[in-house]
Amino acid sequence: MDQAGGHPAAVQTPHTATGLDNRKLGMWAFLGSECLFFGSLISSYLLYRGRSLVGPYPEDVYDIPYTSVSSFVLLMSSLTMVLALNAIQRGDHRRLRAWLLATALLGITFVGGQVFEFTVFVNEGLTISRNLFGSSFFVLTGFHGAHVTVGILMLLTLFGQSLAGHLPTERALRVELIGLYWHFVDIVWIVIFTIVYLIP
Amino acid sequence: MATHEQAETHADATLPPEDIEHPGPRQYVVVAVVLAVLTAIEVALFYMDFVPQTVVVTSLIVLMIVKFALVALWFMHLRFDSRIYRRLFITGIILAISVFLIVLLTFGVFFRD
Hints:
Number of domains of chain B: 2
Structural class of chain B: mainly alpha
Oligomer: heterodimer
Shape of chain B: flat
Number of helices of chain B: 4
Shape of chain A: elongated
Strand content of chain B: under 5%
Order of helices and strands of chain B: HHHH
Number of strands of chain A: 0
Number of helices of chain A: 6
Helix content of chain A: over 70%
Largest sheet of chain B: none
Radius of gyration of chain A: 19 Å
CATH architecture of chain A: Up-down Bundle
CATH superfamily of chain A: Cytochrome c oxidase, subunit III, four-helix bundle
């Protein structure tokens, strides 16, 4: 049934200058650089806020209850992701697959919700070229949605690898790295939800 | 190929000790419940028209920072892993906040009518 039993990984220090795994270090460096990327998009949104000459304006199109549910869905996907990591570290591959699939499904729900939200906005007249609000809003949330979509593809790849027996406990780091990316996408949404949607 | 996979397996098997000591599922669920409650409070604040706007905005920013920290410290294990990871990530955050705060202040975003 499960490809790898037993307990996590032997406790040894990798033979690197830092004593840490370079792949994990690289992922953290990447996430640090992503802070600058999303920082620039959020700043652009703030810079253009309230400067649109024509509508629709944020208060005309935002549906806070709907977006709150989407935010809750993405937050809970972080829980299922960390439970997937916990499962593979304990050698429980059945639960690993269940939590990976749950995380991917929650991510798909979020992205689906975002596509629906975009469709409603466009139907109400807000397009990317309509005004400054439309441009900065669609670029910011669109890039975030693209990040979530990449995360979903990576999660489904992990799920497939686990099904095929190519994800033994010794390779738990793969799940951890993709988990870090997924949680980062979640914390970026925490910031977007507050700054873009909730702060008047 | 086989050699590459063996090498990767070996590398994965060499996690430093601090990476092993992570919390259990129960603690993760508690953190998730706290995150859900904080989100509910945020949404409730949005609808509280009788609360001064300054209070609402300040509270929303504080709640956002708390949620951000909870996910980073517990779900991303920054609280438990090596300090080097923390420093890398915090450097990115501080750099981003500094650069873009300067940009926003330069354009007077916080002092508009």
